[in-house]
Amino acid sequence: MAEPESALKADDFHLGAHVFASDGKEVGELVHVLVDGDYKLKALIVKENHGFSGHWLSPGSMLVNDELVVPLDVVKDVDHDRVDLNLTSGDARRLPPYLSYREKGETVGEEVEDEAAVLGSGPEIPHWLEQVANKPASELEIDGGENVMLGHTGKKLGTVKDVLFDEDQLVGVVLLPEGLLKSEVILPRRFLARSDDAALFAQLDESDLEHLEPFQAKS
Fold it and tell me: What domains can be seen in the chain, in order of their start residue?
């Protein structure tokens, strides 16, 4: 017998939606999505609120992991502003963290900064640690609010407002205007690339910007 088709659709997920456990407790906010090499939605990244994660107990520490990888098969229901999980809050706390830390080498200057951290004037994350994302290298992370740059020119187009899916495939991202853009537009997926963890890159020319489709939210 064929499996019943899921009522969940990738195009129902929106960055900024509030995420709730099955017992009604708010887990946090949908802040990133992960798509594979074929642009299919693979997982949600949820940033726990401080009450849920216990981060309020150590507000100055950047080493408290407060982003969780949420597989699609634990999502019970979704609409524009809310995602409901079929996990209790206890089970949600056991979801794998998105970021972890590993040791790496550091320069003499970085060692000095780390020593200064003991006195309260250094970096919050020591240089001998680096963040590692819990995802395959082939998957693309798209973050709400992150910068989108024009190629490698150093010019900023705007920031990511939301993601757009058709069925289960990413078709583009909505950009909030900043820098070269003057209004909200849709950046098709074929122009998306990532060079580092700080920004997405739009692989097009400045002359192409006027041809980007304006974004109009569904009423």
Answer: 10-98 (2.30.30.240), 101-128 (no CATH), 144-214 (2.30.30.240)
